[in-house]
Amino acid sequence: MATPEFYHLSRPAAQAEGDCPLLVLLHGYGSDERDLMGLAPYLDPRFQVVSVRAPQALAMAGYAWFAVQFTPFGLVLDHTQAQESRQQLEAWLEALVAAPGVDRRRVFLLGFSQGAGMALGLALHRPELVTGVAFLSGLVVPQMMPAGDPKKLSALSVLMTHGRQDPLIPIAQGRASRLLLEQLPVRLRYQEYEMGHEISEECLEEVRGWLAEGLDR
After folding, report:
1. Is pLDDT of 71 > 90?
2. Tens digit of pLDDT for each residue in 178-202?
3. Backbone dihedral angles phi then psi of residue 8, each to the nearest 5 degrees
4. Residue 128 C-beta-side C-alpha neighbours within 13 Å
5. Domains of the chain, start order
């Protein structure tokens, strides 16, 4: 089967000699690859940065990884579509990581909102591909939990951030996501901020430091 293609933008590492660490950015619902690429100038220049467009075009503009319904009782996710997108993304990432110039020991994912769920779901199911995940303003659901021996996740680092004023994924759901992820032996760091559904300057500074620590570890 051919490797799936995802439209993406890329920024080379500042010093592209030898194998460079890789940072893949996954945007949220209704956005596109240009959104998170705006973070690239503020992130560690040692990274080769790749910002990926989700596969599903929305009628209202923008793209999505899977369908979402906004109901009075909260978000309803299409888990079948989410799984299909995750599997396609896994195959794409596997090919990308195998390409010349990529340091396979230092591959990080950064996802926001729906993109955070995609990033974490991929890492939990294919931890051999991923060093760490920055999980920003996302939602962890039981369907994301991997089968098999959880010990294979012990080397995976996860930074989870959430806004206390988030109107789309309330902080109670963020905290519940933390509790669910704490059932797994990942190296988890959790931070809350006085922000909405966004990446504040304080949150971005935390992400910067965490990514740098991951490269230096």
Report:
1. no
2. 999 999 999 999 999 999 999 999 9
3. -155, 160
4. 3
5. 19-216 (3.40.50.1820)
